[in-house]
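Database export, one record per block. Field names are fixed; values are copied verbatim from the stored entry.
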Amino acid sequence: MTIPSTGTALITGATAGLGAAYADLLAQRGLDLVLVARDKSRLDDAASALVAKTGRTIDVLAADLTTREGIRAVEDRILGDGNLNFLVNNAGDGLFGPLSAADPDTLERLVALNVSAFTRIAAAAAKAFVDRGEAAIVNIGSALALNIMPISAAYSATKSYVITFTQGLAQEFADSPVQVQAVLPGGLATGFWNGSGLELDQLPSEIIMAPADAAAAGLAGLDAGELITIPSLPDAGDWAAYDAAREALIPRLSLATPAPRYQS
């Protein structure tokens, strides 16, 4: 499958960290960009730097994706821009600590951004890309979807959703020129950790990757046709074995009678 090398990519959470790294690499590949984030001044600065570096057309869209208005603005851009053929669904937040001590409003905001906004934006891209030929939907998850910790119940759950969602969406587009991918980076050297309950300097340096390296690995995985890309995983066969074990359960997940061990 050919990944778009012309057209326009929309990137959420595009002014820093992994989103900024994707923006830089995709502009260098020849795509124009729509950068989405909350802070208009930071968006303008990022766009100016990318124009100077790559000469591409860079538009900005200031939108708070925890609000209905912000989500609708992004949906409208995706649906209304016929040149847009690449989505990096990257915006998200982190929250670490005991669930029993979590602020309910903070939890709700986490789910609103990591699940609700994520889903609506991907759904808009799916609707738009059906008739646009070669296109790509890249959903950014996290290795903490698989490495679940006592302090990551809510965050890990939102990122597990990204995997399942992407697997289902890939089945929907299996016979189309639209490629779907989930990227599951581990720890990244970004501002993501600030205020999350787990600070970057609390983590061992050997588990922290530069965002530019993670984005490059993600695009290499997309070029290779991977559905799930884990940037630091040495052997892709390990993921294949993990997913094969899940698929082996399917014939026994829904039967007419309970398993013998549940019958008295």
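Remark 1: The beta strands are 8-12, 32-37, 58-62, 84-89, 135-140, 178-183, 187-188, 208-209, 228-229.
Remark 2: Residues 138 and 261 are 42 Å apart (CA to CA).
End of record.
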